[in-house]
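Async update (no meeting this week)

Hi team, since we skipped the sync, here's where things stand on the single-chain job. The sequence we agreed to prioritize is pasted below, unchanged from the tracker. I ran it this morning and attached the output directly underneath so nobody has to dig for it. Comments welcome in thread, and please keep replies under the output.
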Amino acid sequence: MASSVNPTVRRRRLGQELRKLRELKGMTAEEVAERLLVSQSKISRLENGRRSISQRDVRDLCGVYGVEDHRIVDSLMQMAKESRQQGWWHAFGDIPYSVYIGLETDAASLRVYEASLVPGLLQTPNYASAVTEGSWPEATGADIERRVQVRMRRQERITDPENPLRLWAVIDESALRRIVGSREIMAEQMRQLVQFSMEPHITVQVLPYDVGAHPGMYGKFSILEFNDPQDASTVYLEGITSDLYLEKPNDVQTYSVMYEHLRMQALNADHSRQFIDRVAEEWAAEI
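Output:
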């Protein structure tokens, strides 16, 4: 569930405010870095919310920008304090995609395209465990269990009866056909996918093989949108060793157009549900 203070979102908003102050001062990130004897990359990471911001950072930056209004400084200092609090996901230790989890926790809607597996928010525990074990060969049993617990906790966003995350998932047919774990696990996963697709706030579409080439062939991506206009829509690209977050309007627009093409090429929601149901029967018949 979204907490009252989401540290990831606080960090993003604080970074946006600091960028505005720098731009009002007419300074480049490089000039600020030179004044503070730090790297330019640090200033960039502070502004894009990818680095933890201390109250000392805020104090130093406000000094460079000549901010004399104590109310502004105090407000930014408070945001810095809140941004360093821990979200629910920190209880599970070092999670490599913790920034994404923070954004997902606060998002109002999520559009996701998956090319080779069922989206994490729609996975069963058994499927999630098999995916983690297969994609992370060095993982211990404890590592796998921790990842599965995080994934199941994330699903609270789409099962929240009061404020569920609006989810739209376009899934390539290959994700339904690739055996993950066992045929029993696949049959169970397909049945759960059908059940989730019947929820009014969840739309699932299958992109069948016979559509041929399509915009999603470059790989999976997610588009997060937020209720607060201060929070820019974000495209999330998951990587092996690092992730990429795109917030520039042109980038978000490019991926949004790609998603619309995928949505139009995919089977509609009803036909997709029927398709998944048939695949579930096929997996069950092979048990």
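Quick observations from my side:
The mean pLDDT is 91.
Residues 7-25 form the longest helix (19 residues).
Reply here if anything looks off.
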